[in-house]
Structure formats: structure tokens, C-alpha cells
Write a structure and sequence with these properties.
The chain has five helices and four strands. The radius of gyration is 13 Å and the shape is globular. It is about 35% helix and about 10% strand. It is an alpha/beta fold. The protein has one domain. Helix 4 links the parallel strand 3 and strand 4.
């Protein structure tokens, strides 16, 4: 089984995610040796309808470190790149860097996963 795709958002422009959490998550991802995609700001990419969001959204088992799951879902939808139902969004605004890194780097589903249902609820 292949490792899930990981997407890290640095939330560079909104400045709503604690800086220490962003830096710690990024450092742990880099130290892990596991490949991941990093973007400066999903909000900006969504506003510009960046076409690179579509292939990311189509990745099976995608794990995203960003902010609130509902917001991330709608950012992708607004850009014309709806997320698959099995996506896991980790919230750097409310979760610790350790918890986020553990969930990003470990395969399988944890009790704090945020998955999307057909009706768009989270």
C-alpha cells in the first residue's frame, strides 16, 4: 500500500494559524523524510482558481494540514477542485503540532479524522 499524499499549507497571508505550530509541523515533515507537497496559502490558490489544486484534490488518501476542515473543503470547491470523501484535514489552528505530525505521518485512520460525506457535511 502506498503512503497517503500529504499537503501542507503554510497559511502565509491570513496569519490565523499560530506561527510556532506551522513551523513545528513543517520541521517534523521535513525531518520525517516522507514526501509532501507544500503550498504558501490555500486561500490565495483558491481565489486565483489555481489549476494545480485539481490533481491534489484527486489524490486518494489525501491528508491536509491547514485550518478548519469545512473552510478547506470550500476553498477547494470554490477553485473547481472538490475534495474526495476520504480526505483528512488537520487543523493547525486548534490541534498541536505533535498531534498533526503524528496523524500526517502515520497510515490509517484515527479518531480525530475529518472526512467528508456525500452531502457535504463534515
Amino acid at each position: 500500500m502506498s503512503s497517503p499524499q500529504i499537503l501542507y499549507c503554510h497559511c502565509a497571508y491570513a496569519r490565523v494559524v499560530p506561527e510556532d505550530v506551522k513551523q513545528d509541523v513543517l520541521a517534523k515533515l521535513c525531518a520525517s523524510g516522507q514526501s509532501f507537497d507544500g503550498v504558501a496559502d490555500l486561500c490565495e490558490m483558491s481565489a486565483k482558481k489555481d489549476p494545480s489544486l485539481l490533481p491534489l484534490a484527486q489524490q486518494p488518501g489525501l491528508k491536509i494540514a491547514a485550518c478548519y476542515p469545512r473552510a478547506v473543503k470550500w476553498l477547494f470547491a470554490a477553485a473547481g477542485a472538490p475534495l474526495q470523501n476520504d480526505v483528512q484535514v488537520l487543523n493547525m489552528r486548534t490541534q498541536s503540532a505533535e498531534e498533526i505530525a503524528d496523524e500526517l505521518l502515520n497510515e490509517g485512520v484515527s479518531s480525530s479524522d475529518h472526512h467528508y460525506e456525500e452531502n457535504g457535511q463534515s
